[in-house]
Write a structure and sequence with these properties.
Layout lengths: L3 E4 L2 E4 L2 E2 H8 L3 E5 H15 L5 E6 L6 H9 L3 E4 L2 H9 L7 E3 L6 H10 L3 E4 L2 H14 L3 E8 L21 E2 H12 L4 E7 L10 H19 L6 E3 L16 H11 L7 E4 L3 H4 L3 E11 L6 E4 L8 H5 L5 E3 L9 E6 L8 E8 L6 E4 L20 E6 L2 E6 L17
Parallel strand pairs: 4-20, 5-6, 5-13, 6-7, 7-8, 8-9, 9-10, 9-11, 11-12, 12-13, 15-17
Antiparallel strand pairs: 1-2, 2-3, 4-14, 14-15, 14-19, 16-19, 17-18, 20-21
Helix pairs in contact: 2-9, 5-6, 7-8
Bound molecules: pyridoxal-5'-phosphate and lysine.
Length: about 425
């Protein structure tokens, strides 16, 4: 079931017409569906609940708007994060630090200090140097830091090379072949408590097998560690489940998690942690944009819209294909093929290429599946204020982030004194 549906000729988010949102809040604007976020969270959490202990830790980087985090926190979600900024967002949104896992290859001492004081669930440690820094910070606070090593299982996630993270050639995690020895050394550290093991092999995976292969490697490590007297409490399988942008047919979250739970039957004492990001928010959002100009050309026709690569960088960065649909279907227009491009001064500033659309200047378009890695990756390039964000809940729409004002563009900047 899709909460973004046409009613008559008009595209709705739940029970609100996107044309009404554009009229009320302007464009470009991100629009999210609360019911979709909730449904996707439940798909993971309910399937995982078949295991004795489990926790969904939503990956904050996918969409970190406070309202999004608050919806998830109310459902009982934990959070996977990669910076003190994300941790502060989680706290501001009412999230529970005891359900936070902290990933990332470059945690600063200040970030460790802040997270330790808050009492987070664990640090997903990605290198030996990080482990030693954490030991020092924990010692200075007279606390024990809960640690899960993020291992790199050297598995091909079969996704875009820029978003593959579990290969030896990637910067992430600790080589799984070295992990047992590092756990043994870590056990000697006075202010480290070994609580788990973690991996995250990439994003937008459309097959279950690489996840299951990684799971096997993690379980083998857990067994080996047990023999060494190190009993871990949890296994964190990361995020990475793909969504449908075009023709992809990724596994349903419930089917994927069911397989994991099945495999963990012999490990009832292990808590199962998941870190889904995209699978929860991508298809819960669209980017609403207006056609400014139609520009015919010899080789190409361009639809120049008011959203650009600074608002949604995925097409420019990964050549990602995202569906672009009219908000109001124009029955009487002949469709034409357009490159849908923004006003930014870069050739790479496109949202979609060669799209068959029946549109006029002034019409609205919706870029689908933009709820994850959309707003969070946006910037002010070309001094463009960042878009507004709206949450639809049934028949109501709520402004959850105001469009940036002109002054926001130079906040914190100073002229030189004479
Ligand atoms: C450590 C970690 N966990 C979870 C995620 C979430 O990934 P996804 O949005 O693909 O589920 C990411 C991003 O890829 C990540 O780096
Ligand atoms: N930002 C990427 C995914 C990377 C995930 C971060 N580890 C995307 O839009 O597809």
């Amino acid at each position: 079931m899709d909460y973004f549906n046409y009613q008559g000729d008009t595209l709705f988010a739940e029970q609100v017409a996107l044309s009404e949102i554009a009229a009320n809040y302007g464009t470009p604007t991100y629009v999210y569906s609360k019911a979709t976020i909730e449904r996707h969270y439940h798909a993971f959490a309910d399937a995982a609940a078949q295991h004795p202990h489990s926790l969904v830790c939503y990956a904050v980087k996918a969409n970190s708007n406070l309202a999004v985090l608050n919806i998830l926190a109310r459902l009982g979600s934990g959070f996977d994060l990669v910076s003190a900024g994300e941790l502060r967002r989680v706290i501001a949104a009412g999230g529970d630090p005891a359900k936070v896992v902290f990933s990332g290859v470059g945690k600063t001492a200040e970030e460790m200090h802040f997270a330790l004081q808050l009492g987070i669930k664990c640090f997903n440690v990605e290198s030996v140097s990080e482990l030693h820094r954490l030991q020092e910070v924990a010692k200075s606070l007279n606390k024990k830091a809960p640690v899960s090593l993020r291992v790199n299982p050297d598995i091909d996630a079969k996704t875009h090379p820029y978003i593959s993270t579990g290969l030896k050639a990637n910067k992430f995690g600790i080589d799984i072949l070295l992990a047992a020895e590092i756990y043994r050394d870590a056990k000697q550290l006075s202010h480290i408590e070994l609580v788990g093991v973690d991996c995250h092999i990439g994003s937008q995976l459309t097959e279950t097998q690489p996840f299951l292969d990684a799971l096997e490697k993690l379980l083998a490590l857990i067994t080996q560690l047990r023999a060494d007297g190190i009993a871990l409490k949890h296994i964190d399988i990361g995020g990475g489940l793909g969504v449908t942008y075009d023709q992809e047919q990724p596994p349903q979250p419930s089917d994927y998690i069911k397989k994991v739970v099945e495999r963990l039957k012999d490990y009832p004492e292990l808590e199962l942690i998941m870190e889904p990001g995209r699978a929860i928010t991508a298809n819960a959002g669209v980017l609403l944009t207006k056609v400014e100009f139609l520009k015919p050309g010899q080789e190409k026709h361009f639809a120049i819209v008011d959203a650009a690569m600074n608002d949604l960088i995925r097409p420019a960065l990964y050549s990602a294909w995202m569906n672009i649909v009219p908000v109001v279907i124009q029955q009487n227009l002949t469709p034409q093929t357009y490159d849908v491009v923004g006003p930014v001064c870069e050739t790479g500033d496109f949202l979609g290429k060669d799209r068959l659309l029946a549109i006029r200047e002034g019409d609205l378009l919706a870029v689908r599946s933009a709820g994850a890695y959309g707003f969070t990756m946006s910037s002010n390039y070309n001094s463009r204020p960042r878009a507004a964000e709206i949450m639809v809940d049934g028949a109501r729409s709520h402004l959850i982030r105001a469009r940036e004002q002109w002054q926001d563009l130079w906040r914190g900047e100073q002229l030189l004194a004479d």
